[in-house]
Amino acid sequence: MEYIFMVLMGLGIVAADQLTKLAVVAQIPLFSRVEVLPGVFHLTYVQNTGAAFSSFQGQQWLFLLVFALFTGALIWEFSTGKMGFSRFEKWCIAAVYAGGLGNMIDRLRLGFVVDMIEVEFIRFPVFNVADCFICCGCIALMVSLVFFNRKFWKDEKK
Hints:
Layout: H1 2-27, E1 33-37, E2 41-48, H2 60-80, H3 87-110, E3 113-119, H4 129-147
Antiparallel strand pairs: 1-2, 2-3
Helix pairs in contact: 1-3, 2-3, 3-4
């Protein structure tokens, strides 16, 4: 039953990501800027053919391969439970996967990822809703693994 809720959460994340991207593409011209909270953030529509900080630009095959491997590893782990992830950590992984799926949909459909959120108070690349879930999910997963899941680091796993 828990996995059904994870799938529903993932579908919600993908839907939120795709709907925000569709809205931005329909309303904001490429490289245009729309102030949302002055001094905090604005929307800037950009097309990213790479990964974070535009690394690996044009390497769509690499992103597809990594995503396929991640999908296989996720199916294996969730069906066997051999790694010893806690329930919370599984939810974090589901959030990361859903964010990755949102970006993969863009890559397959458009050949690039639609990014639109640009913060003004720090120098940071333009990102999207999927990226938020990927980053927050990874951070929460790492904090949980490092500070709260002693069973994960033991050699005798299930």
